[in-house]
Each structure stands twice: as C-alpha cells, then as structure tokens.
Write a structure and sequence with these properties.
mainly beta; 34% strand; four-stranded antiparallel β-sheet; 215 residues; Jelly Rolls; binds fe (iii) ion; binds N-[(3-hydroxypyridin-2-yl)carbonyl]glycine; 15 strands; 2 helices; 13% helix
Length: 215
C-alpha cells in the first residue's frame, strides 16, 4: 500500500464538538445546485451589501427562502423582502432543503428544516472577516454551509474573538455544519486566491442554510 500523501479523497473533520467538515458532501449535486442558484440570482441578483459601519462587503450576496439576511447602515437583519426589488425572496428549492437536512443529519442534527439560505459569491480577493452568526431567533438549530467552485481557506476562530483561528481548506462540494456547543463560534474566510473552476468560473459560491424562526 502506498501512503496516500497525494490522495484528494474526501475527508471528514471534526473542528470541535458540534462542528464538522463533511468533505465533498454535495459534490454529486454540484451542477443541479449551480443551476438552481442561477434561477434564484435571475430573480434576486447578487449585490454588495454595506456594513453598519459603512464598508462595502467584498462578498456579493443574495438569498432564498422565507427571509433573507441583509446589512445596511441601520444594521444586520433578516428581511422577508428583498430591499432591491421590494419583493419576497425566491422560494428555497427542494434540492437545497434536502441537501441541507442530510448534511445536518450526518453531523448529528436530525430534522433540520432551514427557512433561509444566504448565497455568497467570492471573486478572487473577496473575504469575510471573523464573525458570529447570531441574528437568528432559533439558537438551537445548526447552520449548514455548502461550498462550490474555487477553494478557500476557512478561518475557525473558536468561542472568543481573540482566539487565534485555525485555517481549514474548503473545496468544491464540502459541507460545514455547526450547532450545539459550537453554534456561536467565530469564523471567516481568507481572501480567495485567483483561479478558474470548471463549473463556477472565477468564483467561489457558498450557501449557508439557517433556521431563523423557532417552532
Ligand atoms: C463562507 N460562511 O463559507 C462563509 N457562517 O463563505 C459563513 O459565514 C458561515 O460557512 C455560518 C456557518 C457556516 C458558514
Ligand atoms: Fe457566518
């Protein structure tokens, strides 16, 4: 047996209790996911939101589902209406719900029913600084993230903002799930390196599924 030093086989990785990377989890559905993303973005185009502090985010965002995550000078919030169009966000495709629920279950969180999905597009150089996801009313449900296209270095910062983050490479099809004791961990994304991916072109896409409302 040769050592698998050069093996790209999918790997699962426990980050800490409640947080796991499921290597390649969504790879078999990549084309269908990108098709569905394209339909959503036709109705609710990607845009660069402004932070409450007045900075334009380098990541371009849109949403589908009952509510969408938005930021502007007034703050962060979940909004049932796309502020660009004043219309409801596109419905969440069944494929999204199914894949998110399966990933959550594989990570030990059965019966996950997301009501919001944030769509992020990173062009080369785009990044996301360390943050917690805490705008959701439901504090029990996990968050499920699916990465497509160009690879990225994910920052896993632990429970305190000052903790030095671990760096984890996320590649096409990887899922990250966190909840329970890890639900409010700090995390972010380093600037995406330039490259071309056969399915997404010069971009990384990330879907994060949330359950915003309790019940
Ligand atoms: C990203 N993701 O991977 C950014 N948040 O592009 C997030 O901020 C994130 O991946 C909560 C849970 C999973 C995530
Ligand atoms: Fe986040």
């Amino acid at each position: 047996m040769l050592p698998d030093l050069f093996d790209d086989a999918p790997r699962d990785l426990m980050l800490e209790p409640g947080a796991v990377v499921l290597g390649g989890f969504a790879a078999g559905h990549d084309a269908a996911l990108m098709d569905a993303i394209g339909v959503i973005l036709d109705a609710a185009p990607l845009r660069h939101l402004v932070t409450p502090g007045g900075w334009r985010m380098s990541v371009a965002m849109s949403n589908c589902g009952r509510v969408g995550w938005v930021s502007d000078r007034r703050g962060y919030r979940y909004d049932p209406v796309d502020p660009e169009s004043s219309r409801a966000w596109p419905a969440m495709p069944g494929l999204f719900k199914t894949i998110a629920a399966r990933a959550a279950e594989a990570a030990g969180f059965p019966a996950f029913v997301p009501d919001a999905c944030l769509i992020n597009r990173y062009e080369p150089g785009a990044r996301l600084s360390l943050h917690q996801d805490r705008d959701e009313e439901d504090r029990e449900a996990p968050i499920v993230s699916i990465s497509l296209g160009l690879p990225a270095t994910f920052l896993w910062g632990g429970q305190k903002r000052g903790d030095r983050p671990r760096r984890i490479r996320l590649t096409h099809g990887d899922a990250v799930v966190w909840g329970g004791p890890a639900r409010f961990a700090f995390h972010g994304v380093d600037p995406v390196a330039d490259g071309i991916h056969s399915l997404t072109g010069r971009a990384r896409f990330n879907l994060t599924f949330r359950k915003v409302f309790r019940s």
